[in-house]
Amino acid sequence: MEPEEFEFPFPPYPIQIDFMKNLWKCLNEGKLGIFESPTGTGKSLSIICGALKWLVDYEENNKSNLQIQMKQLNDELKKITDESKGDWFVEQTGQMKIKQKQQIIKDQLDALERHNKLDEDDSLEKNDIDQDLLLEDLNINSDDDKDEEEEELETARYTQFFFCSRTHSQLTQFIGELKNSPYADKVSSVPLSSRQNYCINKTVKKLKHVNLINERNQSLLIADIVTKIQDIEEIGSNAKELETCAYYASRRSLPDSQVILLPYNTILHANTRKSSGINLKNNVIIIDEAHNLLEAIERMHSSQITGRNILHCYNQLTQYQKRFENLFSAKSVLSLSQLSYCLKKLIKILGGTSRSQLTDEIKDEIPSKVFNIEDFEAVAEIDTINIFHLIDFINQSKLIHKLQGFVEKYSDDLKVQNIPKKAEGISAFLNSLQGKDEQLNTEIIIEQKKEEEISNNPLILIISFLESLKSCSSDGRIFVIPGKTVGQGVIKFLLMNPAAHFHDIVKEAKSVILAGGTMEPISEFRDQLFIGAGAESERIMTFSCDHVVPKENILTRILCKGPTGVSLEFNYQNRQNPKLLDELGRILQNLCNIIPGGMVVFLPSYGYEEHLSKHLEKSGVLAKIKIKKKIYREPKTASGVNAVLEGFARDVKSPKIPQTGALLFSVVGGKLSEGLNFSDDLGRCVIVVGMPYPNIKSPELQEKIKYLNENLKPGAGNEYYENSCMKAVNQCIGRAVRHINDYSTNTRGSQ
Fold this sequence. Notes:
Layout: H1 14-28, E1 32-36, H2 43-84, H3 88-112, E2 161-165, H4 168-179, E3 189-191, H5 195-198, H6 210-227, H7 232-242, H8 246-252, E4 259-263, H9 264-268, H10 270-276, E5 284-287, H11 293-300, E6 303-306, H12 307-324, H13 330-349, E7 369-371, H14 373-379, H15 387-396, H16 399-409, H17 426-433, H18 436-454, H19 458-468, E8 476-481, E9 490-495, H20 503-508, E10 511-516, H21 522-531, E11 540-544, E12 554-559, H22 578-594, E13 597-603, H23 606-619, H24 621-628, E14 629-633, H25 641-653, E15 661-667, E16 685-688, H26 699-711, H27 716-733, E17 744-749
Parallel strand pairs: 1-10, 1-11, 2-4, 2-5, 3-4, 5-10, 12-17, 13-15, 13-16, 14-15, 16-17
Antiparallel strand pairs: 6-9, 7-8, 8-9
Helix pairs in contact: 1-2, 2-3, 6-7, 6-8, 12-13, 12-19, 22-23, 22-24, 26-27
C-alpha cells in the first residue's frame, strides 16, 4: 500500500501527492510507467520525492528482511551443532550450505551500509617505438563461447536509480532540485558527463608517474563526490583544485552511488552503457523530458557515411597494412582484409572503385535506392562477411586508436590528395579565360577542408554504420544516394523500430519510468516502445494529471486571417509569398503594441527565420517593432545561445523607454523550443507561425510511414505524421506557462 505522506520542501499540491503515490506504487510493483505532468506542476520535485521515498522504504524493508533471514540461518546453524552430537564431519557438512547463504546475505547487508571499497588500478601503460600501433593477436569468440564464469551472480549492492534527461542544462536543473529536496543528505549521487564537460587539462602534463599522482587525487575526489550532491560544474571545479580527472573519478564513484544522473543517450545506447560501467540489472531508470524518446533512440542508432569517408578510410587502412603487414598475425591479416573488402564494396555501390578520386564524376547516373539490411548486404556483396566477428575484432584490437595513432605519426604520407579532374571542352576553355577555373578549384578545396575536419577519423563513422548492419533486417532501412562525384555519395541507415534497442532495458531493469510535461499520444510509448520491446501490457502503468494553472490564465487563438483579410496559409508553397509576409509583419506589429514584457515567435526553420527577418527589415516593419520591443534572433550555434537569452531577459526586465520588453525570433525544434523557461514577463505571448509538419516528400519519412502502417496497424503512419507536428507545437507553447500563477497568450497561424 502506497504511503499517504511524502517529505516535500513545501506543502505539495494535491496533484503532486497523487503523482508521488502513483510513482511509488509503480516502483514498488516493478512496472513500466508513463507519467504525464504538465509544466507548473513541480514534476521534477515530485519525481525526486516520490522515487527516493520508495528507495528509502525499500532499503529499510530489505535490510529488515535480510536481518531476519540471517537470524533464521544462525538458528539453523545452532540446531545442526546441537544435533551433530560432537560429530565434526556431520557438523561441517551440514553447515557448509548455510554459511554460503549467510555470506550472500552479509554481502547484501554490507552493500546497504555502503561499505564497498573502490578497486585500485595502479598499472602504467608503456609504449615502445611503433609497438603501440600494432594489433594484438586476439582470440575473438562468439557470445555462445563465453566462459560460464561470466554468468556468475552479480556482486551484491544496493538498488541504484538512473535519472536521465536530454541535455546538460536539464540535468543541472534537476540536480538543483535534488539539493533542495529533503533527500539531499540521505542519498549518495554522481552526475555522469562526457570528457568534453569534465576534462580540465588543455595539454597532457609531462610529469613522472602522472598516473600514480592522478590515482591518489582521484581517490580524494571520489570521496568528495559520493558524500555530497554536486553538479557537473562543481565536480569539475574540485577536480581542477586537486589536479585530477573528473571524468574518470565520476565513473569510478559509480558503484558507491545510489542516484546517478546522466544524459539519456548514455543509458539508451548499449555500447555507451557498457563503456560507462552501467549495470541495469534490478535497478530503476527514470527518463525525464521523455516526450521525444522514440525519435532520440532512432537518431542515436542511425548512421551515415559518405563516399569521402569510405575512400579516406580505405586509403589509411591500406597504408597501415602495407607498413606492418609482416608483423601482423594471420588472424589480424584476415580481419583487416575483410574490412578492406567491405570498404571496396561500399565504394562500388556508390558508383566508384578503390582507385577513384573524391572528385571523379559518376559517368552513369545511378538512382537512389532503399533496402532492408538483408537485401543491402546481398546487393553490396558483403553478405559473406561475418559482421559480428569483424566488429568484435575492431573493438577488441582497438583498431580505431591504432589507426589514428598511425595517421598522426605518419600524417605526411597519409594526406588525402584531392586533385580535381581537369575540365575539358569549349566551356572549360571559356571559363579559364574568365578566371572561373581557379575559383572552382578554390571552392572545391575549401569544401574538402571542411569535410576533412568533420571526418578526421573516418573509421569511427564506418564502424557506426557496420554496427547498424547487426540489426534485425526488418528494423531498419538503408538509403543509397549516389552523388555527382564519388566523394559526394551517401549511404544512410535509419532505424525504424526503436523498441529493438529498448528490449534489454525493459528486460533487465526493475522498473522504467518515462516522464514528461506532454506525453500524448501515450499509445506511441505503450505500443511502439514498451510492448514492442517485449513487455506485457499488464506491466505498463500510465498516469496523467491536470495543469495547475487556471484556464483563465491561458488565452489560445488560431488565426486564419490577418488584419487586412489575407489568409494565413503557411504551407511550403505559399510561405514566402510577399503579401503573406507583409500580413505577418502587421500582426507582429499590432501584438507588440499591446502585449507587455517578452514575446517569442517560433518559425518553421532557420532558413525561413532569416528570410522573414530580411523581408521585415526591408519593408520597414522591424524598425516599427523596435520602437516597442528590442529584437533578438536565435543563433545557429549553441555557443551564442546564452548571450541571446541574457540580453533578452535583461531587456524584458529593464526595458529602455519607450520599449516595453523584447521580441525573440526562434525556431521550432531548435535550441530554444525545449527545456527552457520563458516564465512570467519573459513569455507573455508565444506565437507559432504555421504548423511545423515534416516534409511529406522526404524518402525517409515516407519509409517510416510505410513501416508503421505495415508493422503496427493501418493508419499508424498518418497518425505519426500528425503527431510529429502537434508534439512540436506543444513544446513551443509550453515554454510560456511555468507555474501556478503564470499567464500567457498562445497564437498560431494556420497551415
